[in-house]
Amino acid sequence: MFVEKPLYWSGKLTPRANAKACREILGEAGGRLSVNYPTACFAEPFIAACGRPARLREFFFRYQTRGAYRGDAIAVDLLPHALSLLREFTPMDTLSVISRESSDKCWYAQLDVTGVRCRFEFVQDPEASESQLSFSLDGQTAERVQVPAGDGFAVGLRIPGVTETPVAMENPMRTTIARALAICASGESVPDEPARSVAIMCLIASSLVE
């Protein structure tokens, strides 16, 4: 089973009920399931250019898409991107909400994720000309750059003050699909994948359910 991310609409379920549902659903995947692995791919070029933070303290993630969700639905759609990337830099065991607000097109939140102060800004506007993704770790910013190429697009990561020319990387979605197909063809499982997916989805539930 391969998905870009599992979308679930749990209504008034408690975090415990969400966790139970996540484990049951993801248990059927047998380890062949990924929650937004494409966004996690941006960790590798960032670490190559800037190194890995010894102890991450602040994480900021902004994502504007052409989606049409509203309010908390924006967070359900986009939080997997932010948390999948964050998990490449630091353990994620607990989450507490410092503040959050939402409107028709925006969802903002400040969260504490296992001691890391996180700020998320999500915007969905179906009329936007393009999507934009940027993030920062302890003040060092990085920006995704996409340009049309062939029947798809080329992807790069620009890190102002470090790499003004974007660092070219494999198309994250194409890389993810190739990775999933290789796993399925081999008949093997990625040992960490179910735990990774459950952890991310449960943290999403914690950020949305009182």
Structural commentary:
Helix content is 34%, strand content 30%. Strands 2-3-4-1-5-6-7-8 form an eight-stranded mixed sheet. Mean pLDDT is 80; it is low at 1-10 and 29-33. It is globular, with a radius of gyration of 17 Å. It is an alpha+beta fold and 210 residues long. Helix 1 packs antiparallel against helix 6 (193-208) and helix 4 (72-86) packs across helix 6 (193-208). The chain has helices at 15-27, 37-40, 43-50, 72-86, 172-186, 193-208; strands at 58-65, 95-102, 106-113, 116-124, 132-137, 140-149, 152-159, 163-169.
Mean pLDDT: 80
What's the tally of helices? Answer: 6
Number of strands: 8
Distance between the termini: 31 Å
Unreliable stretches, pLDDT < 50, 5 or more residues? Answer: 1-10, 29-33
Helix content: 25-40%
Describe the structure concisely for a colleague.
This protein is an alpha+beta fold. It has six helices and eight strands; from the N terminus they run H-H-H-E-H-E-E-E-E-E-E-E-H-H.
